[in-house]
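Holo prediction — NAP.
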Amino acid sequence: MNILLIGRSGQVGQALERLLHNGHDLIALDRSDLDLTDQGAITSAIDDSDPDVVINAAAYTAVDRAESEPELAAAINATAPGLIAEASAAAGAWIIHYSTDYVFDGSGTRPYRESDLTQPLGTYGRTKWEGEEAVRRANAEHLILRTSWVYTWHGHNFLLTMLRLASERDLLKVVDDQIGSPTYAEDLASMTVSIIEKLEIDELNSVAGTYHLTHQGQTNWCDFARKIFALAGIKGVEVEGIPTEAYPTPAPRPRYSVLDGDRLKRVFNLEMPDWESGLRRCIEEGGLARSK
Ligand SMILES: NC(=O)c1ccc[n+]([C@@H]2O[C@H](COP(=O)([O-])OP(=O)(O)OC[C@H]3O[C@@H](n4cnc5c(N)ncnc54)[C@H](OP(=O)(O)O)[C@@H]3O)[C@@H](O)[C@H]2O)c1
């Protein structure tokens, strides 16, 4: 399969590039190859690569900064995905596009299904939702994969922030009333590759649509931090739970954003492991596991 990967330098993009190098003809682009604010460049990049599948792993992901840069966030998260979807449709290619749990307002009380009402609270969530809609409109052969709380060993994420803070302080105060599912970028990428391989075998046009793709189970940021330190064998750091109100941020966060992965299981027969096993593998792969 000819695969065009946009956003190769991000958390998910790097993992995808590594995995897709085996067994596929891959063209992987970063921002210096294709800047998504350059609308004309999007069409030519897709035309030139003659893809079967286009994966868009690029996004404006600075959730708080988006509140002061809404136009830029919209250009990258809403306009560009629509153009990528249009150009991939013209090339007869599938588009695989990532979205977020932040399309929901967090007032739910059970894991969100793909069909549940979206009501983003901030600019990032709103622009990502607009991107979803643009992709749906432009290319019938789309897979929109909503994920959440992504981490790995590079980039900007909660795991790396907690490890840095643990080396600087004895006491960390971490929000304990936002509930979600941490997702290891490597597992997300590997599940994406499994989906692509199923597309290849089955040519299942009827599978097009939106899917929730996160690790299973749920936690809050405070317990996530505690688990990181436990698995990494970091001692002597106290983690105190605080309410969201004690840690105000420019962009409001959903209080509850667990995503139901049932549709992925039903349609693709694929299931993510639980979040603790994802975290354990990440810590081991990073060489930080507590010695036994
Ligand atoms: N991170 C999370 O917790 C999270 C949660 C839910 C959903 N998601 C979604 O999952 C997907 C992957 O996220 P991620 O965590 O891998 O993101 P990430 O690490 O922040 O990477 C984003 C990528 O987008 C690229 N990018 C940004 N602006 C660009 C532009 N103008 N032109 C071209 N490329 C540009 C970045 O390039 P540079 O490296 O040059 O900046 C980077 O490679 C995104 O759709 C995101 O919305 C993420």
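READOUT: Residues 60 and 73 are 6 Å apart (CA to CA).
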